[in-house]
Amino acid sequence: MPTSPNARHQAQHRPFDILLCPLCHDRLKPVGQALRCPSRHSFDIARQGYAGLLAGNRRSTGVDTASMVQARTLFLQTGHYAPLARTLARLTAALCPPDSTVLDAGVGTGYYLAAVLKALPATVGLGLDTSPYALRRAARSHARAGAASWDIWQPFPVQSHAVDLVLNVFAPRNGPEFHRILQPSGALLIVTPTPQHLGELQRHLGLLSVDPAKEQRLRRTLSARFQPDHTEALKYVMTLTAQDIEAMSFMGPTARHINPDVLRRRIALLGTPFQATASFVVSVYRPR
Ligand SMILES: C[S@@+](CC[C@H](N)C(=O)[O-])C[C@H]1O[C@@H](n2cnc3c(N)ncnc32)[C@H](O)[C@@H]1O
Ligand SMILES: [Zn+2]
Fold first, then answer.
1. pTM of the model
2. I need a labelling partner for 185 at 20 to 30 A (CA). Which of 5, 11, 101, 259 fits?
3. What is the dihedral of CA 174, 286, 232, 250, to 10 degrees?
4. 270 class by beta-carbon count within 10 Å (0-12 exposed, 13-18 middle, 19+ buried)
5. Which residue's CA is minimally distant from atom 1 of ligand 1?
6. Which residues contact ligand 1 via a Cβ below 6 A?
7. In the CATH scheme, what architecture does the domain 12-282 have?
């Protein structure tokens, strides 16, 4: 594990320190309730604590809605994905110095970012997401967490080589940008569900299934810039109540494809508590 303190951490070490102006790419500084660059481009910090960098440029597709974020919050509170949070905390503690900077791309409510920050006592984390509902929660997920609205598919308003760890959990990936913002000694941690994940429920409820070629495709798209370091498989059985299943179904893309009443009827027919498999792969990559 690297131990030497990093020079850039010495003066200030706050999540917004790594941000650049999305318009002119100069440094941003906090001024009152905004971030401002020397050319006076200004971006509000919302009352809920996240920086609005995507202003006027907001994507409307693929963004988690208020009800999806509410369902995600409810489901994560049940603790059924706590083993994944613990795995990420353990891996990051082994990969990063304690005073690192972590960027979580597609941070959601900040559940995993907060778990990682708890494991690294002087580390700060910045979460990017397009969903204002998710960002509100992410900004408050941990005292050392910050959040900013950004579209992962666009060049990140983040300094080059400013990040020790990029975290990407069930969210879109931008390999070239992950590579640019990472330190050469940094790491990229990606979590993907395997085809067994929630297999029992998919059959009964018509949830969207995981593409079996996903892991292979992931490796191919990252291979130009990243070297696979190691992977960890995590598989366990969850005992789910009807409420757990409903929250889990409504927090993901299925929410956009199935009528909620149809889904509720199918859950009622299942018989609960219901046992379902959780199955993830955590992949660690190093920049080439
Ligand atoms: C399945 S959720 C995962 C959230 C979080 N990582 C977790 O596991 O709890 C995917 C997240 O990616 C965000 N997202 C989707 N497309 C995005 C994009 N183009 N740029 C930034 N965030 C995006 C969604 O708003 C959502 O919060
Ligand atoms: Zn500017």
1. 0.94
2. 11
3. -20
4. middle
5. 170
6. 59, 62-64, 72, 106-109, 111-112, 128-131, 134, 151-153, 169-172, 252
7. 3-Layer(aba) Sandwich (3.40)
